[in-house]
């Protein structure tokens, strides 16, 4: 991996710093923290509180007995009397009884005589250009009596306190609590203010005051950044705030604590109904009284929307849990978690397997903050997520860059390999062309001399010369076939042929050689392998010739047996199998695969003793695989070898007799022919004339394509032997132009046979495409030349 993907780390830090400066990062962290809190919210424990809701429906239903809202405060005194009678543990009023009103004295007596009560006050901010009214004497005395001097807290400019008679009745510590809160800029309450400071005195929040009263403490204080009361300790920041893990809201958003409508409570308090279930529900519990009607005090938290009374009840419950469900979002532990998240985000930079790194990083960045939040540590994974995304992007870009570079390298290597292959093929083609021309002379003149009257020793010398020439010719063909196969330019031509006839013909051509060595040469064909097949007849013949020729070469006594069979496939006839069994010298087991490698033989001694290029079996296996099969071998030293070639040759119908060309089997013309020979090589001209002139054929020579066209215009010919490479105008161009002239002037078609040293399949295709009737490759034998004349010349 290159180093530059590590730039993702400083890039992530820079982007994180930029987002922090713009304030966006804080919003992202808060959103992630809220999601974690919702996912890891504590299940609601068995509540010790009951929420009494003064709702709209109750206000309408109680107009007759209680009158219109706002009520006389005697109504609340009646409520307190009833709650005291049923054994309520604590009453918390989430309503500010501000200002004097009818019934204050009655309510004050109820406060003194009834169950423990906590009243609510509200903090005030001084609007611009508006002066708040100074605190009254009763309020100042209550602050001194109930507040704590020198303690931290959320500062307020003033206080909306209960009416003076009610304040005077609050003599117990923590009997007054502040309900005001300070929300974040998105309107959510995350840090809960436990302490509020007014005129230098700190008062507890309503929930904290309720907890202190419920615990029955007589005093509380602030020590070492924590509110301390009895055996409890609540850590707070410099503004008297803390974060708690509140329980999840039940489905539908209902309060976690039981909710009692105001109507039900007051009808029981007024004696209108006997409600023992209500009395049982309220007994021993802390009762939080609030209103969802006119005041509609609601609080938005990360866990969801709470009514004011239900929220204070939930905080009250949480403050009483041991251990305290504290939520910390600062400190060394949180920083360590964020550093670990950063390390998880860097995994794609550390691991080579990107999919694994991405998976581990993503899982870790979800599981680690979730687990930490479950334990009360709120660490934002934002920086780690940012680094993970940038690291994946950077490594993906790097991988893509490397892939493209590798692709370019592979393309260059492929182009170089193709160029080398083309150069090799072109070199072989050039060498082949240059060798075929003199070989045409060697083989041609040896053939001519063999038919001349010679002394016995001269006849033997001519025979040796022809044999040596044919060996060189076979080597040229093997080199060209191997080059075609390696370059992928060898193409198969499928036509129906009789497999048994083909094999017998190849064996007949090799029979003289076998008899000269004193060897038998036999063929057996099973019934299922007889008949016509569809395939490349020339290449199948080459395979048979290579295998049988090799068997004869390495066999000193005995003979060679060829057997034809066909496999039985699951849905019908399978592949054809041609087995060649000899009684020769055999092959060592560790050399069986080596013999199929190019230019390889079983060992150096065999190469020295028997000769050969080592290409025959290589070409044979390649041809077999091109035909959907393969070649296998079994051998034992001194006992012989058995080669089995399997070929995909589907069964085919025999051609109808009327579709078979009547002259296909003729080996020589039935009359003397008038021939045009377009050839620039004097040697080739001498060979062709030496072969055909003694047989009575008349030959007119043209040295190039233009002379050939001129000769065709001057006189008709039975057939044209056209060389492909000539000066002035090549044979392909001359052929195309003559075919165009015939079409334009309505002349009868003149047979044209390409006679060239070019032997590749593409050369054959070019010749036929130009308009030639056949393509003969030099060196050419008299038999092949006469057969072509018999097949294509005008009758």
Question: Can I get a quick summary?
Answer:
Helix content is 46%, strand content 18%. The chain has 795 residues and is an alpha/beta fold.
Features:
7-stranded mixed sheet, alpha/beta, 5-stranded mixed sheet, 30 strands, 795 residues
Description of the molecule:
The protein is an alpha/beta fold and 795 residues long. Strands 1, 2, 3, 6, 7, 15 and 16 form a seven-stranded mixed sheet that branches. Strand 11 and strand 12 (226-229) form a beta hairpin. Helix 5 (74-86) packs across helix 10 (262-269), helix 15 (354-374) runs antiparallel to helix 16 (382-450) and helix 16 (382-450) runs antiparallel to helix 17. The longest helix is centred in the middle third of the chain and has 69 residues, at 382-450. The two termini are 76 Å apart. The model is unreliable at 607-611 and 657-665 (pLDDT under 50).
Shape call: rod-shaped
The stretches of 5 or more residues where confidence is low (pLDDT under 50) are 607-611, 657-665
User: Helix count, per DSSP?
Assistant: 26
> Kindly state the mean pLDDT as a whole number?
84
Structural class: alpha/beta
**Radius of gyration from CA coordinates:** 54 Å
Helix content: 40-55%
Distance between the termini: 76 Å
Assembly type: single chain
The description of the largest β-sheet is: 7 strands, mixed
Number of strands: 30
């Amino acid at each position: 991996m290159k180093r530059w993907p590590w730039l993702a780390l400083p890039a992530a830090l820079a982007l994180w710093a930029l987002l922090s400066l713009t304030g966006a990062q804080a919003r992202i962290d808060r959103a992630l923290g809220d999601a974690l809190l919702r996912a890891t919210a504590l299940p609601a424990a068995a509540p010790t509180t009951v929420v009494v809701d003064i709702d709209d429906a109750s206000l309408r239903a109680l107009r007759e007995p209680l009158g219109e809202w706002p009520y006389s405060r005697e109504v609340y005194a009646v409520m307190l009397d009833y709650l005291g009678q049923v054994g309520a543990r604590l009453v918390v009023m989430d309503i500010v009884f501000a200002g004097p009103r009818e019934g204050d004295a009655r309510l004050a007596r109820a406060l003194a005589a009834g169950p423990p009560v906590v009243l609510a006050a509200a903090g005030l901010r001084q609007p611009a250009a508006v002066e708040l009214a100074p605190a009254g004497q009763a309020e100042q005395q209550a602050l001194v009596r109930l507040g704590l001097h020198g303690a931290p807290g959320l500062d307020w400019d003033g206080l909306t306190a209960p009416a003076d008679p009610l304040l005077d009745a609050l003599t117990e510590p923590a009997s007054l609590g502040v309900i005001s809160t300070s929300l974040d800029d998105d309107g959510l309450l995350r840090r809960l203010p436990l302490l509020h400071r007014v005129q230098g005195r700190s008062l507890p929040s309503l929930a904290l005051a309720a907890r202190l009263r419920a615990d029955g403490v007589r005093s509380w204080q602030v020590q070492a950044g924590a509110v301390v009361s009895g055996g409890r300790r609540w850590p707070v920041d410099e503004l008297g705030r803390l974060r708690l893990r509140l329980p999840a809201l039940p489905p539908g958003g209902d309060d976690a604590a039981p909710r009692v409508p105001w109507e039900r409570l007051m009808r029981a308090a007024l004696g209108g109904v006997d409600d023992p279930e209500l009395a049982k529900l309220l007994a021993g519990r802390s009762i939080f009284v609030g209103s969802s009607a006119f005041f509609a005090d609601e609080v938005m938290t990360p866990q969801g929307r709470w009514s004011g009374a239900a929220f204070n009840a939930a905080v009250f419950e949480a403050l009483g849990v041991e251990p305290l469900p504290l939520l910390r979002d600062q400190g060394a532990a949180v920083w360590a978690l964020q550093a670990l998240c950063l390390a998880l985000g860097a995994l794609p930079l550390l691991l080579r397997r990107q999919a694994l790194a991405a998976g581990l990083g993503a899982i870790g960045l979800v599981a680690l903050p979730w687990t930490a939040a479950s334990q009360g540590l709120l660490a934002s994974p934002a920086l780690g997520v940012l680094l993970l995304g940038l690291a994946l992007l950077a490594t993906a870009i790097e991988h893509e860059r490397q892939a493209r570079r590798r692709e370019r390298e592979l393309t260059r290597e492929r182009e170089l390999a193709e160029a080398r292959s083309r150069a090799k093929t072109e070199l072989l083609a050039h060498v082949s062309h240059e060798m075929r021309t003199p070989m045409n002379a060697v083989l041609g003149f040896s053939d001519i001399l063999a038919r001349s009257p010679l002394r016995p020793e001269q006849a033997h010398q001519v025979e040796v010369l022809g044999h040596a020439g044919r060996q060189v010719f076979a080597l040229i063909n093997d080199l060209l076939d191997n080059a075609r196969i390696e370059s992928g330019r060898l193409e198969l031509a499928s036509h129906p042929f009789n497999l048994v006839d083909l094999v017998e013909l190849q064996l007949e051509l090799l029979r003289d050689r076998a008899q000269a060595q004193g060897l038998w040469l036999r063929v057996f064909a099973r019934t299922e392998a007889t008949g016509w097949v569809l395939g490349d007849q020339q290449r199948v013949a080459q395979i048979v010739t290579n295998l049988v020729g090799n068997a004869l070469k390495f066999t000193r006594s005995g003979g060679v047996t060829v057997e034809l069979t066909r496999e039985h496939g699951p849905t019908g006839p399978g592949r054809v199998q041609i087995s060649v069994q000899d009684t020769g010298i055999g092959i060592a087991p560790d050399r069986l695969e080596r013999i199929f490698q190019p230019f390889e033989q079983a060992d150096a001694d065999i190469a020295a003793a028997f000769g050969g290029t080592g290409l025959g079996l290589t070409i044979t296996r390649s041809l077999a695989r091109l035909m959907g099969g393969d070649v296998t071998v079994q051998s034992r030293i001194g006992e012989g070898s058995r080669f089995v070639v399997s070929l995909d040759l589907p069964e085919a119908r025999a051609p109808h007799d009327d579709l078979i060309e009547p002259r296909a089997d003729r080996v020589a013309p039935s009359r003397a022919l008038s021939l045009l020979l377009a050839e620039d090589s004097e040697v080739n001209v001498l060979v062709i004339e030496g072969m055909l002139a003694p047989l009575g054929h008349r030959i007119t020579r043209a040295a190039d394509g233009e002379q050939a066209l001129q000769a065709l215009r001057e006189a008709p010919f039975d057939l044209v032997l056209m060389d492909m490479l000539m000066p002035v105008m090549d044979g392909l161009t001359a052929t195309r132009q003559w075919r165009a002239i015939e079409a334009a002037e309505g002349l009868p078609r003149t047979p044209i046979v390409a006679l060239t040293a070019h032997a590749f399949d593409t050369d054959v295709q070019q010749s036929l495409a130009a308009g030639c009737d056949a393509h003969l490759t030099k060196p050419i034998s008299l038999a092949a030349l006469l057969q072509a004349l018999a097949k294509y010349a005008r009758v």
